[in-house]
Design goal:
two-stranded antiparallel sheet; 6% strand; 9 helices; single chain; mainly alpha
């Protein structure tokens, strides 16, 4: 165990995205195993009633797996395997079942976009963390390695950083500008014949167009994350740190 981890054990250690991603992958694998097992069992029985019951059970599992475990134990199997714990900001303990459900719902709506603000927050929080006043922390600091966590970020106290309102407004403007540029590029690609209107309007896309859509989605995610991180750190023109 390194010296800096020993010194940090008195303060919360907030999980980096790579550590949280590891937990998500483990939970995803568990969900896929349950789904595959249910499909195989339904096929083996050949009963519509059994298939329907299994379908309801799988849906219930997918909806309750995370909220129940997070509420009772502070994390899912993926969290535990990644040495992580979901913590309520107000109590320092496990989040309530209502908060755990809200976290799941927000992640379901925003998907990966919920994580783009991690680097711009003091405690490496995603959108679903901020909205439910929770954090994801290292469960056992003695088992953590450098690079798996960050400590709470402190903003400069010398007045060199623009106000949070100014940084937020400038960041939103840059995001809007990025969106406008993206739509202009999309229109240009349609005119050039790289993308078809049928693919954009009706989602009838060729293999090449689908590959482009995936790549552009990843690129958009990275751009949004970069703009938010730079804006919050005072590195965007219009709200630069002095």
């Amino acid at each position: 165990m390194s010296t800096d981890i020993r010194n940090a054990t008195s303060a919360p250690l907030y999980a980096r995205f790579s550590r949280r991603m590891r937990g998500i992958v483990i939970d995803w694998i568990i969900a896929m195993v349950v789904l595959f097992a249910a499909v195989m069992l339904a096929s083996a029985t050949g009963s519509s009633d059994v298939s329907r019951t299994l379908g309801y059970l799988v849906i219930a599992f997918l909806l309750l797996y995370e909220p129940v475990l997070v509420t009772l134990t502070g994390g899912t199997v993926g969290h535990w395997a990644s040495n992580l714990r979901v913590v309520d900001d107000r109590t320092g303990g496990n989040v309530s079942f209502a908060k755990a459900l809200a976290r799941l719902a927000i992640k379901g709506v925003l998907s990966w976009y919920s994580f783009v603000i991690l680097a711009a927050t003091r405690r490496n929080q995603a959108v679903h963390d901020l909205l439910t006043r929770s954090t994801v922390q290292i469960r056992d600091a003695s088992k953590a390695r450098v690079g798996q966590y960050v400590t709470e970020r402190a903003e400069p106290a010398d007045g060199s950083m623009p106000s949070s309102l100014r940084r937020s407004v400038v960041t939103v403007l840059y995001l809007a500008l990025s969106l406008a540029v993206w739509f202009m590029m999309l229109g240009g690609l349609v005119v050039a014949g790289v993308l078809s209107e049928r693919c954009i309007d009706q989602d009838f896309c060729s293999a090449g167009e689908r590959a482009f859509n995936v790549a552009s989605g990843v690129g958009t995610l990275l751009v949004v994350a970069g703009v938010i991180a730079l804006g919050w750190k005072g590195r965007l023109p219009g709200a630069r740190r002095a």
